[in-house]
Specification:
The structure holds 2 protein chains of 2 kinds.
Chain A (H helix, E strand, L loop, with lengths): L1 H5 L6 H12 L3 H12 L3 H16 L17 H4 L17 H10 L9 H10 L3 H5 L14 H6 L3 H12 L5 H10 L3 H10 L5 H6 L1 H10 L1 H17 L1 H14 L7 H10 L11 H14 L33 H17 L5 H16 L15 E5 L6 E2 L8 E9 L37 H13 L9 H7 L6 H21 L3 E3 H11 L15 H7 L2 H11 L8 E10 L4 H19 L11 E3 L4 E4 L5 E3 H8 L3 H9 L5 H24 L9 E4 L4 E3 L24 H6 L6 H19 L1 H11 L13 H8 L6 H16 L2 H14 L3
Antiparallel strand pairs in A: 1-3, 2-3, 3-5, 5-7, 6-7, 8-9, 9-10
Helix pairs in contact in A: 4-12, 11-33, 12-15, 14-15, 14-16, 15-16, 16-17, 19-20, 21-23, 27-33, 29-30, 30-32, 32-35
Chain B lengths: L1 H8 L2 H16 L11 H5 L6 H10 L2 H6 L1 H14 L5 H24 L5 H6 L4 H17 L4 H15 L11 H6 L3 H9 L1 H19 L9 H8 L3 H23 L8 H16 L7 H5 L6 H14 L3 H5 L5 H4 L4 H4 L9 H7 L7 H12 L6 H18 L2 H7 L5 E3 L19 E3 H15 L7 H21 L8 H16 L1 H5 L4 H22 L3 H13 L1 H16 L5 H10 L1 H21 L6 H10 L5 E3 L16 H18 L2 H19 L1
Antiparallel strand pairs in B: 1-2
Helix pairs in contact in B: 2-4, 4-7, 6-7, 7-10, 7-37, 9-12, 10-13, 10-37, 12-13, 12-15, 13-15, 13-18, 15-18, 15-23, 18-24, 23-26, 24-27, 26-27, 26-28, 27-30, 28-30, 28-32, 30-31, 30-33, 31-35, 32-33
The chains are: A mainly alpha, B mainly alpha.
Chain lengths: 823, 682
């Protein structure tokens, strides 16, 4: 995980390392103090941790029996002689790239080792100029980490010693911790690693939360050691509590009273709460008195109450009233998923859309509330869900929908803004009321009245002023105030002036028609028309910037500094757990490529599984599906890109083309590695910069839609794609192939990071994509560990050729067209 | 205590008689309290016998009543006292007794206008304090955590007071409701769904009546507060109650027409509807059928009008489509007046479950039904009310922006009259912005009432709505992607009708003004079409229609000339009409010879539309149009002109509410509920 973190800051890697050194490298005691100081874990955890240290060290016959966390000196790293380190000698002092690159290899205990010479040549040959500057990978003879069997079986003290040193090394990251937690059956090691979690940054751990949850569900012994850490985090954060509870729900089996269900139930029953602080007794009674005084939590979940997400807590900064901490959020999300559930029963798309908006309008009446969109990382509250911005997405029998949510980013427990009505739309040019001057239109019998309407005229522009003449006459029977008199005269002045010019004004009929023709001149061809049968097309085509500006100006909260607009797709009836796994793998791949400086571009997006069949997805901004492009514009991909970015040799087009190739290569390789299926054009997006983005990873590894086995090609590469790349003989197409090769080599180098995630998620058999017994081994095989680079190159050439000439891709597109109308 | 024991153990028969005995002796003028200081406490523990109580009062002559007034005052005072009781049985009985007293007194007043309700019921002394106390108690109960049935009784009592007299302005008791405003507790009841379902209909009705009290002269707090109400929940609640009531009416008229979505299902439902509704003979109009469960919906229409007229914030809720109705359907007894029982309501609601309700959509549908019938005075009134409500709506910026939102499209099935010259072709309504639907509605109205008994006022309201709509489109440069030809055809048909029947119509209507309104609408299209027409082709079509129908405009012009040359009373207006025809005439005179010569050149007699359009397109440039000022101007809607109508409708609603008289029974059953509730608690 630290690797992942380092990725964006390539340039300043050494600094980052330097900063981290104290916490990661020094020793346990420092780590502990760090954790205790920052998070303040309950005493129990501290105790546990000591025990675990004991249990590891007991078997190491040295003078290392620590008495207190602080008591452990800087012992281990110093005492260990350098050659015994599982790392190249230069690492501790080193600050160059190689240091950071080694750990994954170091953890590569299962990989069939290619000859060292071959491996170093690979990296030299990989075509990346950066690679040549780097020293070759450490020889395998030095890197000799213990294998799984060694850990469990051979209990030699030397091995322990070695393992401990590995664990304490600054290169030991979350990825390795997960791998060891999964593979080790040694209670001491498990306990040690579980406690080690306290010292990892939260983000690193959270990335592997699905794996932790799976282990919690499937591995009783690991569950026991993980529990203190998880409970600790739950107490700290409501968000984490819910995340964990959802994962436990999503991956939990059917067992009634398993440890996992118990933990989940106690989280959701709000039994795991932050410990109340000093004097909580009093405050609690105060609070309960308050709660009695105001009608509170009883509205929770009642959308018609206007306070469905209000837990009634009035405590401000730190809640101590015992109001439900998670209930508002769970209510919010279940309202969203219930909408999706109800929509699925509605027949046609247009009705669905209407229904969706109606449902959201009802929900919106309960906002702003202290609920959040779990896809967005920074703390925020939901202010408003404008119902008319939402749209139902294309799907035949399910009803996923996209909505745009206005949120307020906050630092602390700021008061929520009150519910506000949307502002008036901007007034059109001139006030509607007839001017007094046009006497030919005046109604003769109401001369006095026309004066009144002139008065109204004055503030007609201000739509929300209650200038009701009924009221004003009724209450004040006012004589025109001096200022309004002056306004009247101003108006009459205005009207006389325009009166004078009236006679002379004439216009040519041709002129009127020309203006009409100009104004209605064909809209830019890349604009999408509103299509009632495909309501999401227009919603998605609008650029994020313009949507943002439009929504901000039409929102009553738009002026708030922390105002943000977030998109969110709510999916019900689809198993998103595979999506989540895929997104996780995409992130790993992306990190690997970034680390190896291969310019492949993936676009992983946030996925949140709420349970086995529903969840939230972060929409990909500024993108439309290839299907929609074809349907709306009737153009080929290349023509569309030219339309959007300029003629073939323009800078804009070249940039877009480059993006296209780099992303297409990334997804081609990913498709091959993960066996992405169901690749019809509705599942492939094109963003406004030209990137290809694949969505919907419902069919990966060993499964395909209805298991038709249609898509036998390694990945989707149509003639249209090739056309965008200037054809098969072009440089761009060569570049495409080179990118795939380099990406494959880089991914192979770090393939265990990928494989161990997949292997772990196979436990329990929850994911149908991994049910096949060969799922993991064939994944490993697709990294082609035994091949030399020239062999890989041949492989890539073959894959591309197969993909390009695949009959099945065309077959599948036709199949999708005939069954689902997807172009 | 002893007597209570005895009465409790005694037979029910004896107990019944006891309260009746008390009534009898009370109305004989006997003083029952002197030898029994706890008389009232005991009296209100006896279940009131409303019919007997009413009968006793009706027995009294006017003189006797007046003589009895102190006793009655005392009874009323005691009832009011009891409303503050913790003891819910006394409270309920007091409420029942009070309601019965007030109802009966109002009935007596209607029979004999010399009686003064206020004097007989509350007397002249301390009247203010007594009534203040009454309404304070009401307010406490309405906002308190008490059973719904109790709240319901209080609302019924208030409705009894508000609808006691046909003309609410003459009702002396309502004055006290002004002094002691119950607006907030009432509005609060609209905010929560459960209470809205229970009381929403009554609350909205009550508010509507109260808003109509002395609109012009006095400071009516309900008007003020309703006009500035900005609680979205409450506004939505208000809108939803109206939507539900209008929707029930629409559904019962349309039958199974709505909601069928799939092609086959839709057609079959439509054919069955055709069999069920459209093929009925002329005298069993669907509108007549609809009246079976009318009664309530005029009141709701008035409530909608008041909100649309008074409150700008209400516009935000107009298009607030709400799924609440479908996800938690308001139970029919709650949203409908209790006497209504439309046959297959549940079935219709099930059918329509998919389509979320939306006040504007429902209102347009309702209008289409109401506007189909302009024969009786009552239906004309209802129609006018629909039109002035539409006028209020199309004057509002917010409502307009909603109605013109291209992304906010609806399929609205409007009701269409079968007529001799057209068949109702079953077709699914197009999905379009609501403004387009509104134009369809106006077109439909314009086409359907060119009758001997010409509803001229309605036409001029209709044209007013159209001008406001076009004015918005012109100013906001909104282009509705629609075919405008039906509208032009309807307007030309209207002109043709006016010209053909000028002498007959002139007796009752100023047809020059109306014709001028129509011609000015054409002028908007001709000179400002560039700002709101969807395509250049539609501008060509406009010219095509004008040229094609030139006869109508020629005749109109000659008629205007005819009336302007004489010394008739319409001279000025006829001249004005002739003036504003200048552009239309210029177009006709410009293109007709060009087309004729082209036809001659091509040796054609029956050109196609495309050929004519081609000629039109080629000859625009030599045509100069006069830009007329203020074409799209209009006077802001003011209630003054329509006060009469609104007051009349309010009176009708009050009479309807009173005539249906469900209150006593409802109150009685509510009381029974309340009682069982309390006995259950005990």
């Amino acid at each position: 995980m630290s690797m992942l973190e380092d990725v964006p800051v390539h340039g300043s890697r050494s600094e980052v390392r330097g900063a981290k050194a104290p916490t990661h490298q020094r020793n346990l005691s420092l780590d502990f103090r760090h954790v205790t100081g920052a998070g303040g874990p309950p005493a129990g955890c501290g105790h546990q941790r000591n025990r675990s240290l004991d249990s590891v060290l007991q078997r190491i016959p040295e003078d290392m029996t620590p008495t207190s966390p602080e008591g452990a000196p800087l012992r281990i790293p110093i005492e260990v002689p350098a050659p015994r380190l599982a790392l190249p000698p230069e690492v501790p002092a080193g600050s160059d790239d190689s240091g950071i690159h080694t750990p994954p290899d170091g953890a590569d205990e299962e990989r069939p080792q290619p000859p060292a010479a071959a491996r170093s040549r690979e990296s030299l040959d990989s075509g990346n100029p950066e690679d040549t500057e780097r020293p070759p990978d450490p020889p395998d003879t030095i890197v000799d980490p213990p294998t799984k069997s060694e850990v469990s079986a051979a209990d030699t003290s030397k091995n322990k010693d070695f393992l401990l040193r590995l664990f304490e090394s600054k290169l030991f990251d979350m990825s390795m911790a997960i791998s060891y937690l999964f593979n080790s059956k040694e209670p001491g090691v498990q306990t040690y690693l579980a406690n080690k979690l306290f010292s990892f940054p939260h983000d690193d751990v959270d990335f592997y939360l699905p794996q932790l949850a799976t282990m919690y569900i499937e591995m009783g012994d690991v569950a026991d050691v993980l529990r203190p850490y998880l409970v600790h985090r739950c107490k700290q954060s409501a968000e984490f509590s819910l995340r964990l509870a959802w994962l436990l729900t999503a991956f939990g089996g059917d067992a009634k009273r398993s440890k996992a269900t118990k933990l989940r139930d106690s989280i959701l029953a709000e039994e795991i709460r932050p410990a109340a602080r000093r004097g909580h007794h009093r405050s609690q009674s105060d609070a309960s008195a308050l709660r009695l005084a105001t009608p509170t939590a009883r509205h929770l979940g009642d959308l018609a109450s206007g306070r469905a997400f209000d837990n009634g807590c009035l405590c401000g900064e730190q809640c101590s009233c015992g109001a439900p901490r998670l209930a508002p959020q769970t209510q919010f999300l279940s309202s969203l998923t219930n909408i999706g559930r109800r929509l699925a029963g509605v027949a046609d798309k247009e009705r669905r859309n209407g229904r969706l908006r109606a449902e959201l309008a009802t929900l919106d009446l309960n906002l702003p509330a202290r609920v959040w969109l779990p896809l967005h990382q920074r703390p925020h509250y939901v202010l408003r869900i404008p119902p008319h911005a939402a749209a139902v997405l294309n799907s035949k029998d399910k009803a996923p929908y996209i909505m745009y949510v206005e949120v307020l980013e906050t630092d602390g427990h700021e008061p929520l803004p009150p519910r506000l009505l949307p502002p008036a739309p901007p007034a059109p040019h001139s006030p509607p009321i007839r001017h007094t001057k046009s006497e030919e239109n005046l109604v003769p019998e109401w001369p006095v009245w026309s004066l009144y309407s002139a008065l109204d005229d004055v503030d007609a522009g201000d739509c929300w002023s209650h200038d009701d003449e009924e009221l004003s006459t009724q209450y004040a029977n006012r004589a025109p105030a001096p200022d309004s008199l002056s306004q009247v005269s101003a108006i009459s002045a205005l009207s006389t002036s325009s009166c004078g010019s009236r006679e002379s004004v004439a216009v040519g009929a041709g002129e009127v028609r020309r203006r009409l023709a100009d104004a209605t001149a064909a809209p830019p061809p890349n604009a999408f028309k509103h299509d009632p049968a495909d309501p999401s097309a227009t919603a998605l085509k609008e650029s994020w910037e313009s949507k943002l500006a439009r929504m901000r100006s039409s929102s009553p909260y738009g002026a708030l500094a922390g105002w943000r607009l977030l998109g969110c797709i709510v999916k019900v009836g689809d198993d998103l757990r595979q999506e989540m796994l895929a997104a996780q793998l995409l992130r790993r791949l992306q990190a690997v490529w970034a680390q190896e400086r291969v310019p492949l571009k993936l676009h992983p997006y946030e996925i949140l599984c709420l349970d086995k069949e529903c969840g939230l997805i972060q929409p990909v901004l500024n993108s439309v599906s290839l299907h929609q492009i074809k349907k709306q514009s009737g153009k080929t991909l290349r023509a569309w890109l030219e339309l959007e970015h300029g003629p073939p040799n323009s800078e804009g087009f070249l940039r877009a083309q480059n993006n296209f190739v780099e992303s297409a290569a990334a997804y081609a390789l990913t498709s091959y590695l993960l066996q992405l299926k169901d690749r019809h054009n509705g599942n492939i997006l094109l963003d406004s910069a030209g990137h290809i983005i694949h969505i919907d990873f419902g069919f990966i590894f060993s499964i395909s839609p209805k298991n038709l086995g249609f898509e036998s090609s390694p990945f989707k590469l149509t003639q249209e794609f090739v056309e965008v790349m200037d054809g098969e003989q072009s440089d761009m197409f060569q570049y495409f192939k080179i990118l795939i090769l380099r990406g494959l080599i880089a991914a192979r180098k770090h393939c265990d990071q990928i494989i161990h995630i997949v292997e772990l998620m196979r436990m329990g058999g929850q994911l149908s994509c991994l049910r096949s017994s060969s799922a993991v081994s064939s994944l490993r095989a697709r990294f082609h560990p035994g091949r030399t680079e020239p062999q890989l190159q041949t492989l890539v050439d073959r894959l591309v050729r197969d993909a390009l000439h695949s009959l099945s891709t065309r077959l599948y597109d036709n199949y999708q067209y005939y069954t689902n109308g997807i172009l | 205590m002893a007597t209570r024991k005895r009465s409790g153990s005694g037979s029910k028969r004896h107990l019944k008689e006891k309260v009746v005995q008390i009534y009898e002796s009370f109305f004989r003028g006997e003083d029952l309290t002197t030898d029994n200081p706890t008389f009232w406490d005991e009296f209100f523990l006896l279940k009131p016998k409303i019919p007997q109580l009413e009968a006793e009062i009706h027995k009294l002559s006017v003189e006797q009543l007046l003589n009895m007034k102190e006793s009655i005052n005392l009874l009323v005072t005691q009832c009011i006292e009891m409303l503050g009781q913790e003891h819910h049985i006394r409270l309920v009985y007091a409420l029942q007794t009070l309601s019965a007293l007030i109802i009966t007194m109002y009935q007596r007043v209607i029979q004999d206008s010399n009686l003064n309700v206020k004097v007989v019921l509350i007397g002249t002394e301390n009247a203010d304090t007594k009534m203040q106390k009454l309404f304070e108690h009401c307010s406490t109960i309405l906002s308190g955590d008490v059973p719904d049935s109790l709240k319901s009784m209080v609302i019924k009592l208030l409705l009894v007071i508000a609808t006691g007299m046909d003309n609410i302005d003459d009702n002396p008791l309502v004055e006290y409701l002004m002094l002691n405003s119950l607006f907030e507790p009432l509005i609060q009841l609209l905010c929560t769904s459960t209470e809205r379902q229970q009381h929403g209909y009554d609350v909205v009705m009550l508010l509507m009546f109260l808003v109509n009290y002395k609109k012009e002269e006095s400071a009516n707090p309900y008007i003020v507060k309703l006009s500035i109400l900005d609680d979205e929940l409450a506004l939505n609640g208000y809108g939803q109650v109206i939507t539900a009531a209008l929707n029930d009416f629409v559904m019962s008229t349309f039958g199974g027409m709505q909601g069928g979505s799939g092609g086959g299902g839709w057609l079959s439902s439509l054919t069955s509807m055709v069999g069920g509704i459209f093929l009925t003979s002329d005298d069993t109009q669907p509108v007549v059928r609809g009246q079976r469960n009318s009664g309530g919906e005029e009141g709701m229409l008035l409530a909608l009008y008041e909100a649309a007229h008074l409150n700008r914030n209400f516009m935000t809720t107009l298009a607030h489509s709400s799924a609440a109705a479908s996800s938690a359907p308001p139970s029919p007894p709650a949203t409908l007046p209790p006497h209504q029982n439309p046959p297959n309501l549940s079935q219709i609601q099930a059918l329509d479950n998919e389509q979320p309700t939306n006040l504007l959509v429902t209102f347009f549908q309702y209008c289409s039904i109401v506007m189909a019938d302009t024969r009786s005075e009552a239906s004309i009134n209802k129609c006018s009310l629909c039109f002035i409500t539409l006028t209020c709506i199309v004057e509002e910026q917010f409502a307009n922006s909603i109605m013109h939102d291209q992304n906010l499209t609806f399929k609205v099935q409007l009701y269409r009259l079968p007529m001799r010259h057209r068949k109702i072709v079953p077709e699914e309504p197009p999905s379009q912005p609501l403004a387009s639907t509104l134009i369809d509605l106006l077109v439909e109205f314009t086409m359907c009432h060119l009758l001997k008994k010409f509803p001229g006022d309605l036409y001029s309201l209709c044209l007013g709505v159209l001008v406001r709509l076009l004015s918005y489109q012109k100013r906001a440069r909104v282009r509705l992607a629609r075919d405008w030809r039906p509208l032009w055809a309807a307007l030309i048909a209207l002109l043709k009708f006016l010209v053909a029947n000028d002498t007959a119509l002139l007796r009752r209507h100023n047809i020059f003004q109306m014709a001028q309104q129509v011609v000015n609408i054409f002028n908007i299209f001709i000179t400002f079409g560039d700002t709101f027409l969807p395509t250049p082709a539609s501008y060509d079509q406009l010219y095509y229609e004008l040229i094609r129908m030139h006869q109508v405009f020629d005749n109109l012009f000659y008629m205007a000339l005819r009336y302007s040359t004489g010394d008739g009373e319409f001279k000025a207006e006829a001249l004005r009409l002739a003036n504003c025809l200048v552009n239309v005439r210029a177009i006709i005179q410009h293109f007709t010879p060009k087309i004729d010569s082209w036809l001659a050149l091509q040796n054609l007699s029956t050109p196609t539309e495309d050929q004519i359009l081609e000629v039109v397109r080629k000859n625009y440039d030599s045509l100069i149009l006069k830009l007329q000022e203020g074409l799209e101007g209009y006077e802001r809607y003011s209630e003054r002109r329509h006060r009469e109508l609104v007051a009349r409708e309010a009176r009708a609603a009050a009479a309807a509410a009173r005539a249906h008289g469900p209150r006593l029974h409802a109150a009685a059953s509510a009381a029974a509920c309340a009682l069982s509730h309390y006995s259950a608690i005990a």
